[in-house]
Amino acid sequence: MSEIFKKRIIKLLKHTDYEPLKLSQLAKALGVSSEDYPQFKTAFGQLRQAGHVVIGAGNLITLPSLAGQVVGTFRANPKGFGFVTPLEPNSHGDLFIPPKAASDAMTGDIVIAKVKRKGKRGGQMRLSGEIIEVLQRAQNRFVGTLLKEPEGWLVQPDGTAFFEPISVDDVSAKDARQKDKVVIEIISYPTGKYLARGVIVEVLGRAGQYESEIRSVIAQYHLPSEFDADCLEQARQAADGFNPEQVDSREDTTEKIIVTIDPRDAKDFDDAISLEQDSEGNWVLGVHIADVSYFVAPDSVLDIEAKTRGNSVYLPGKTLAMLPEVLSNGICSLQPNQKRFVKSVYLTYDQNGSVLSRRFANSIMRSTQRLTYQRADRILKGHTKGAKPEVIKLLKNMETLARVIEKRREKNGMIHLALPETELVMDKSGRVVDAHPADDSYPHTIIEMFMVEANEAVASLLDRLDVPFIRRIHPEPDALSMKNLAKLLRAFGLSLPRNPDRWAIQELLQTVKDADCSLAVNLAVLRSFEKAQYAPLHIGHFALASTCYCHFTSPIRRYADLLVHRVLDGYLQNRLDATKQIAAGQNLVEIGKHISFTEQRAEDAEKELTTVLILQMLSKRIGDELDCVVTGLTNFGVFVQSRKLGIEGLIQMADLGPDQWKYNTRAYCIVGQHTGLSIHLGQAIKVRIISVNVPARQLNVAPTEPLTSAVSRRESKKTRKSKKRKRKTQS
User: What is the model's pTM?
Assistant: First the structure.
């Protein structure tokens, strides 16, 4: 718990709007309960002892002031300057590095920067820095496109981590050709005069081709791809040794009506649903989850590999599985009409959706039918041709129960953000030919509600048994984040109470539902929240309004769930004391950090490849129009997001129209100084594509019609002159 409190204290103190508080006020701002206050106080004491926070006059708490040198992480900007984010937070924040003061540092490097004081402005000391040493390189390999230029062979790196081209010498050693995707290893880093130099270590294929782009993202994010021979052999042995007739003490549920509901292209079916009524008319929900722990022994080569991977990675058109296919798509997958080992959670509900009892079991099941979300939705809407009568009845009952559960959870404060995902339409070669918002029909919510209920039930059981386990935690947002959110919302004409709770946020999201500003508001709420993570800490899940929560329902694709299955199995096998000893011996804090990292890495890789594939499509559609909404404002332009494609583009200030445009940070809008026209977050806007830079992941757009015209500008000037003359006449 203390580690989480430390992170939250530092994050609050780093806020630009933070004003020094006393310890009790700090605890209140972070929403610390009286029960948790002693641990909070201990965490603060440890931070103070380490010099990470200081107590000044009036017992007010701040970060320490900036020293003469700073050790931190460098991030470069395409315009030549950069910033160093200190490893040890200070009251100044990030240190500005002017152009030509970055030495040979590259984005992500750990550096030492000398602090230079440039006098005061507005009562505040102006600081800049100069990098004097690179302590640790973030990486020495990059992925990019090989180009032949007059000055020689260059590789233009992909993404935004490194902007300058890298010079290469001997391209023939790897038979590389112009416009090949390559992996390049740095042999000398850039200076003020010279580009970085490197050597090609791998040729990935032709730039723009689907397989090349897949391999590029895998290399760029260091994603594990192929399994080694030992892992494959262990998986094969597990598959060969599986005998569904040897059920031992497992409950036999093979005669129950059980269905799986998954995306169209899914192969790893790890959850299935049954629903019956008991003698008193109460609903008995069965959530049946693939028993991966039966096949993957702790500390085996397969287990070590699964832990390293952390999770499966779902890239457009390709899955990098956490487990070999013979398990993930084979004997662990709950395929129709196949007997499979599962862990079952049985939840009994009354007619109001309140849980009356919980029961857990090792079981064997057989799926009655495999449904897609779209097929389930059509059945619920009455299109039942070809569906089994018992499945139709089950689906209708599932919908009834899910709506009652959803209503109960919303009443308890569950928050649902409306952030549509994008589904790509690909041809046989893997090229994206279209994209659209992904299906979000109600069967998605049905499965989500049932999975959340099962996860919560398992977490509550393990918490009551006082056994250490990996939880899914989502801390409550701090007071300053909510204050900043309230400021931003005023630009939309919306408001939040001074100390908003879950229900206030619910009301806000309901207010903007289906409005133009909905996407921008939902994004703003998301950014004000902490990120959910894995840790063995009893923090609860804010967005789900759950005091105990874990991930249990996807052990084929998430290592956290596999760990939880093993702990639950100890309870089911009456080996709880031994399970507690094993769990206590694991470094669950470090495991939680690692699988939180691999989860984020997977999300970033999926987003990157999706962006690349859409940009490739749009590069052939210059001039096409996009229906967008404003999602971001800066002093150099306006960020807009396509409603259909989900991709973000930038409108440069100069492309807004003939006016002098300035970003008003107080009003959260961009204003034309001559016309008075304004652009604000959430505003609907139609744009046309003017350029695409795939390597830099940039989409540049402009309004289909300039927001102002030369005529309106002249008229505006005439109006001001007329008003000025009128004032003189009146005086």
Answer: 0.87
